[in-house]
Amino acid sequence: KKICSNTTTKLPPGPKTLPLIGNTHQILGSMPHHCFRNLANKYGPLMHLKLGDVSNIIVTSPEIAKQIMKTHDLNFSNRSNLVLSNIISYNGTDIAFAPYGHYWRLLRKICTVELLTVKRVQSFRSIREEEVLELVKTIGASEGSIVNLSGRIFLVTYGIVARAAFGKRSRYQKIFIAAVEEQLKLLGGFSVADLYPNSKVVQMMSRTKAKLKKVHAQIDGILQDILDEHRNRKRKGEVEDLVDVLLKFQQDKDSEYPLTEDNIKAVILDIFAGGGETSSSIVEWAMSEMIKNPKLMEEAQDEIRSVFDRQGYVDETKLHQLTFLKSIVKETLRLHPSVPFLLPRQNREKCQINGYELPENTRIVINAWAIARDPNYWAEPETFKPERYLNSSIDFRGTDFEFIPFGAGRRMCPGIVFAMPNMELPLAQLLYHFDWKLPNGMKNEELDMSESFRFTLRRKNELCLSPITRRPIPQ
Ligand code: HEM
């Protein structure tokens, strides 16, 4: 049965392609999300771009995003098979890169009923509070000096995810985090291996591919040790971690989730890679935006301090009262979506969209970054204005297609509930205890906001600030 009708064979418009390299020359040397938006302004919101020998369809409007991720979601629920992502995803057996089908549905179900539920996320509350308190203590001890806030934020978020996934602080934590970061960095560039997936010569010679394989082997070794340790250890009243949950399925012979060793490693790695970098970069961008707009920072601080001053410290019990802080997080997700192109999708059958034909198995890239700045949908789209959400119901849960930092439809991010406190708690703590200044008398408006695209969208330069303690730090 055909999912979409078929009447024309015209590909969407796009710039002229050159032999061999296609349009690759048009995107080199600039931030790809900016470059794709500029090209879309010329060729339209449904655009064909040939990168290497791979056809890409670039989507740059909420209407077309909705057609892909709602109207034709079932057809477009496959992932595009990338050479590099195959290496890190145990051959597409993780959640993010698994092809649409029975196995992927099983993994999603494990997420929604076991791994990423509200209850499970709540069970990690004390882990988050401990890790963030440690952050605040370290910063408090650095009063009078300049703090590399970016570095601190990444450590704390990865620390939380690592403890949720592996239980106690793992002795491998540092090298594991470094390896996962390296993996994301290698994945971020336009590697020739993915531009020419069918060329045997290119595949043999790709340096990125070779490096990625090496890093992945290191990650695999660490994950294997962690699984073995979990099997052998005696549990005594600790919070059940995510590896425990997955091993339980593996050990239960009647389980409806028959997971292999590699399946478990693939899932844990997804949660690690998906949960660490994304949330940290939102906290980092939110702090940057507030440094640039000190009035917003003051407003957020007033709100947090008025909610928590009576008890004298921040915990998770009253985070839901922080309406303004939530708007700051939303606006940060709009202007600095951590995964600006979502994850590439692919249609299982050929399909008509807006009168153009997308042949089967076409790679679909949704420019969520550009969509969230569409002037037809957003007033002052380039301005950071958290107050725009105060009287609006617009949300990132996959129904407002002008705002899709977590994607939408069947392949939407399953980690929102997990991500939220990892962003809100560090922000609330950083703003409750401290005022923040740029070092060396730099003016707020001078803060550099350059981006770096490495699969995720991070600050190019680390955010370094001077803290001034305003509320005593619990010892
Ligand atoms: C600010 C935080 C986060 C952002 C912005 C984010 C964004 C995204 C996006 C854009 C996708 C692709 C959606 C699509 O293709 O439609 C995705 C998928 C995914 N995310 Fe997240 N994510 C975040 C946090 C997390 C966390 C905390 C976890 C796990 C603990 C997680 C796990 C995943 C997984 C497993 C997928 C693959 C889903 C699938 O293919 O079925 N993410 N995320």
From TrEMBL:
Database matches in PROSITE patterns: CYTOCHROME_P450 (PS00086)
Keyword Metal-binding among record annotations: yes
Pfam families given in the database record: p450
SUPFAM superfamilies linked: Cytochrome P450
Family annotation (CDD domains): CYP71-like
Coiled-coil parts of chain: none
Cofactor: heme
Keywords in alphabetical order: Heme, Iron, Metal-binding, Monooxygenase, Oxidoreductase, Signal
MF (Gene Ontology): heme binding; iron ion binding; monooxygenase activity; oxidoreductase activity, acting on paired donors, with incorporation or reduction of molecular oxygen
Chain sites annotated for binding heme: C413
Keyword set includes Heme: yes
Family: Belongs to the cytochrome P450 family.
The protein's name: Cytochrome P450
Organism: Clitoria ternatea
Taxonomic lineage from the root: Eukaryota, Viridiplantae, Streptophyta, Embryophyta, Tracheophyta
